[in-house]
């Protein structure tokens, strides 16, 4: 659960989270509950504005609007459907929802949702028994498919239709629940027959052909179901993106401390230390240094290989391990990275053994 950013006892930023009651084990008969949350952007980051909880069979147990504790900066209406007028008369608070969840859910409850870690974080609750449909149907290289895509392909139904304002939390919770039930009924072999990767690629190709603008990095991450971590001292428009987890810090020092803990857990991160502009010369120098450092970090040396090695076959091998931008054949020996495959001798310890080709990936 730690790998996929689920809140855990003792984890950073989870000090004030509520632990739901749970038993020591679950069984095949443990009940499933679909969960979906909508959020808004406040002065303290994302806060809960609506929670939907659905039991097996699609029965809605809870569909509550929630008033955030801090000043609302953006209602994120296009995602949530929540407006100022809708939220104004609401008196329910996060603590009320937490209390109700503890009363409604049995100890062996299994929570089901799509990108469920985000929902648990805005609810500020910890629960050990979860099924995340974005992970249950995960693609190659950790790709996560959108809930709308899975609903259409697996269940044959359309959700989050363009003519609707925002998402329907009950509909999303039910859909996640149905996806889990389908997986449990038919198993992974049946899911493999759908060839989700190919279907998603075809859909994206169709979107590209009809597109009139270049997609931003955030849109690309969203289309892949990947999440962005944003560490900052001030709330920014980036925080309005659904798959952006924002951590607001009080100082540059805190930003750095949080970055050391959180950055390794996310595929893409933005760390913002200050809004103060840098002098032009310093900014240009910093940009060039970052480019150089990024190139170094993204370059891997492998080898040595036999003199008759084929670059094409090597690229095929390395591509099976992950995305490869380019492969270059080099003859130099990179002593600090080279681990000889044969027994170490005084000659090759010094990096002056026979010269074999290596590749730069």
From TrEMBL:
Q: Which UniProt keywords apply?
A: Exonuclease, Hydrolase, Nuclease
**Pfam families under this entry?**
RNase_T
Task: Determine if Repeat is one of this entry's keywords.
Answer: no
Identify the SUPFAM superfamilies for this entry: Ribonuclease H-like
Q: List the CDD domains.
A: REX1_like
InterPro entries, per the entry? REX1-like_exo (IPR034922), REXO1/3/4-like (IPR047021), Ribonucl_H (IPR013520), RNaseH-like_sf (IPR012337), RNaseH_sf (IPR036397)
Superkingdom to which the source organism belongs: Eukaryota
| Protein name, UniProt field | Similar to exonuclease NEF-sp (Predicted), isoform CRA_e
Taxonomic lineage from the root: Eukaryota, Metazoa, Chordata, Craniata, Vertebrata
């Amino acid at each position: 659960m730690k790998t996929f950013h689920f809140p855990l006892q003792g984890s950073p930023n989870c000090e004030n989270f509520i632990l739901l009651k749970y038993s020591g084990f679950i069984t095949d008969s443990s009940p499933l509950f679909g969960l979906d949350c909508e959020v808004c952007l406040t002065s303290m980051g994302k806060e809960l504005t609506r929670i939907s909880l659905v039991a097996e069979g699609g029965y809605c147990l809870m569909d509550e609007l929630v008033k955030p504790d801090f000043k609302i900066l953006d209602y994120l209406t296009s995602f949530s459907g929540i407006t100022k007028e809708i939220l104004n008369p609401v008196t329910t608070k996060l603590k009320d929802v937490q209390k109700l969840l503890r009363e409604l859910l049995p100890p062996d409850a299994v929570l089901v949702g799509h990108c469920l870690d985000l929902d648990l974080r805005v609810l500020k609750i910890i629960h050990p028994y979860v099924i995340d449909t974005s992970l249950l149907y995960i693609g190659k290289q950790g790709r996560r498919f959108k809930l709308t895509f899975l609903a259409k392909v697996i269940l044959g139904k359309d959700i989050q239709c363009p003519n609707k304002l925002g998402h329907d939390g009950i509909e999303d919770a039910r859909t996640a629940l149905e996806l889990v039930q389908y997986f449990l009924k038919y198993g992974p072999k049946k899911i493999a027959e759908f060839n989700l990767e190919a279907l998603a690629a075809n859909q994206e190709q169709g979107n590209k052909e009809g597109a009139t603008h270049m997609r931003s990095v955030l849109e690309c991450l969203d289309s892949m179901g990947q999440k962005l971590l944003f560490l900052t001292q001030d709330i920014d428009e980036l925080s309005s993106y659904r798959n952006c987890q924002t951590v607001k810090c009080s100082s540059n020092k805190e930003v750095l401390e949080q970055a050391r803990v959180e950055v390794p857990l996310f595929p893409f991160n933005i760390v913002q230390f200050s809004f103060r502009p840098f002098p032009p010369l310093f900014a240009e120098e910093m940009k060039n240094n970052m480019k150089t450092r990024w190139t170094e970090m993204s370059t891997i040396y492998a080898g040595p290989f036999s003199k008759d090695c084929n670059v094409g076959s090597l690229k095929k091998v390395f591509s099976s391990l992950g995305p490869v931008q380019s492969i270059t054949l080099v003859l130099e020996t990179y002593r600090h990275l080279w681990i000889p495959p044969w027994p170490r001798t005084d000659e090759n310890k010094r990096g002056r053994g026979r010269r074999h080709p290596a590749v730069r990936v």
